[in-house]
Amino acid sequence: MTELETAMVLVMNVFDKYACTEGKKETLTNNELKKLLEKELPGILQGAKGKDDCDKLLKTLDENKDSEIDFNEFLVLVASVTCMAHQRFQKSPKK
């Protein structure tokens, strides 16, 4: 597989790993999303002030308002964080 194909499979695997722990296997509950963020994107939660911030993130991502995050909604998070990281690295001085 190419690097991009590998990256895509890794994103799918991370989603599936956390989505299958409770509720529906094809969505993330609020608890599953929090666990995913804690383990996979700890920098996101470092600035969070508590449970309310995770709840706000869930509501923001939950486009269809079903109180769960499906894979498409999860990809919005991944794409947004990736874009922010890319912008930050572009501003960093090159070695």
From TrEMBL:
UniProtKB keywords: Calcium, Metal-binding, Repeat
KW Repeat (keyword) present: yes
Regions that span the bilayer: none
Native organism: Pyxicephalus adspersus
Annotated CDD domains: S-100
Name of the protein: EF-hand domain-containing protein
Pfam families assigned: S_100
This protein's record includes keyword Disulfide bond: no
GO biological process: endothelial cell migration
SUPFAM superfamilies referenced in this protein's UniProt entry, alphabetically: EF-hand
Domain of life according to the entry: Eukaryota
